[in-house]
């Protein structure tokens, strides 16, 4: 066993050991892929094929990568075995290109392009499944043309693969810039979303405050409307009271006028009686007999006049009552008007 094979046996410096640690940075991946592509190109230009290309058979040295194993030696089914080999075809340069694409995918993603719990599941994956994209369009283009199921569709020569790697190497710095721009864009987008969330929260808070203010304003307006309605009701009651008092005043005034008319009539009658008495007094001597003769009639008349006088006295008392009622009504009207002015103030 050579020293290189002994180092590979220990697994301390193989590409497989490196891949076990996780995906490689893009510049490192491109460097290893270019060295591996150049090594395979040399083998193919000599008319041979590796046939059993595995990460564990690729040794990382200080100067680059070196392949170990016998070219053309077929191995058992592995995650890097081309589908046509599973169908019984011999390994050739195109099957090495398939294995190369699977290794490049693993260097980028940190996991294998094809996997299975057993040989049958692994064979099904190799012949029918397609690995998820890496997220780098140029790498996906390169890998896709290497791991095509039909060998006629794959890249036919490593020279084409090397040219694609060189283009990818030149584009890598630009991809880094784009990745940085995407990161900045993602950060800005996250900040924008956070700002939008904060604005939405503030708007929701403001909307709630507006709703509370509208509710409080509505309650205050309803309260004011209730108070206004109450004041209108009380004003209507006051107006009704004033109307009632005015009606009572009109009635009392009419009664007072009637009493005054009665009093005037009584006064006229009293005046007539007085005049009659004066006439009688003046002709007392001459009319003594007449008076005596008429005394009975006079007494009757006097009695009638007494009744009239009593009626006048009663009317006078009634007039006093009416006047007292008018005074009370005026006082009531005055009190109502004072209360109304106080409420309006």
Give an overview in words.
It is a single chain. The longest helix is centred in the middle third of the chain and has 125 residues, at 158-282. The chain has 2 domains: 3-156, Transferase(Phosphotransferase) domain 1 (Transferase(Phosphotransferase), domain 1, Orthogonal Bundle); 226-344. The chain starts with a helix and ends with a helix. By secondary structure, it is mostly helical. Strand 1 and strand 2 (65-67) form a beta hairpin. It has helices at residues 3-10, 15-19, 26-45, 83-86, 93-109, 119-128, 137-146, 158-282, 288-344; strands spanning 58-60, 65-67. It has 9 helices and 2 strands; from the N terminus they run αααββαααααα.
The radius of gyration over CA amounts to: 65 Å
Termini Cα gap: 119 Å
Enumerate the spans where pLDDT stays under 50 for 5 or more consecutive residues: 176-181
CATH uppermost class of the largest domain: Mainly Alpha
CATH architecture of the largest domain: Orthogonal Bundle
Overall 3D form: rod-shaped
Q: What's the main sheet like?
A: 2 strands, antiparallel
The portion of residues forming beta strands comes to: under 5%
**Lateral strand order in the biggest sheet:** 1-2
> Count the strands?
2
CATH topology of the largest domain: Transferase(Phosphotransferase), domain 1
Mean pLDDT: 78
- CATH superfamily of the largest domain, by name, is Transferase(Phosphotransferase) domain 1
> What is the helical fraction, as a range of percent?
over 70%
Helix-strand makeup class: mainly alpha
Contiguous helical run count: 9
Order of helix and strand elements from N to C terminus:
HHHEEHHHHHH
Summed up, the domain count is 2
